[in-house]
Fold this sequence. Notes:
Blueprint: E1 3-7, E2 15-16, H1 22-26, H2 30-34, E3 37-40, E4 43-46, E5 51-55, E6 63-67, E7 73-74, E8 84-88, E9 103-106, E10 122-125, E11 145-151, E12 165-170, E13 186-189, E14 205-208, E15 220-222, H3 227-237, E16 252-257, E17 265-270
Parallel strand pairs: 1-6, 2-7, 6-8, 8-9, 9-10, 10-11, 11-12, 12-13, 13-14, 14-17
Antiparallel strand pairs: 1-5, 3-4, 15-16, 16-17
Amino acid sequence: MNHRLVLRQGPPLRVDARALTPALLGALSADEVRRLRLPHGREGVMLAELFDVRPGRDDGQHALVLEGDLSRFDAIGAGLAEGTMEVHGPVGDAAGLGMSGGRLLIRGDARDLAGCAMRGGWLEVDGSIGDLGASALPGERDGMRGGTLVVRGAAGHRLADHMRRGTVVVFGDAGDFVASRMVAGTLALAGRCGVHAGFGMRRGTVLFAGPAPEPAASFVPVNSDAPVFWQLLARDLARFGGPFDGLSKRRVDRWAGDLAVLGHGELLIPH
């Protein structure tokens, strides 16, 4: 059965919420869900002390709904492989960490490391995210490796750092070092970004659908045209709507770099 968890009171310490997955909770009764213990600081806390457990909608699919200010709950949706999670409220760090499938919908803001080490699935944040979205875990070399991250608000610094595969779409602004050390994948940005975009990127594509920064000196303009590739990319991004709709009607300038490393990455600037 599916469940809906409504936060009754915020925890005094941070809570590791990675155990709250649709598949796991869907196999438990309401009483069993209430008895679950979540890591809370150095101790644990029984779920019933924080949440009211109510029946969720049952449409034959695994689904879990969380409601309330969950900004002290980290790793929501971490490791998600199937089903749908919908969160009504802000969440803490590492939302969607390492998820490989399913859908995680956050109707609020997410803190740092959203979509970190993501391998598949769909993560959508209606608000803004903090630093290191779609990046790698500290000490790791692989960032996002698959799936789709959609941010309706703004993103912090180091977005898509070490990104290796997948698609990131941001409707708002982004901080410094966008797509730094990027290995592959696609990042589309509708707002402004900070300094050092594409720093150290080896391959991959960064598209500026809105205001574009001045490319760094380690990027060079590419005169060869690629109309087929551009039309395919523009039509794929059109499904996100808003500033990404109608890109196929615009011409695009291509810059290759970062020549300080492999130099096979590209910045796309429509006009």
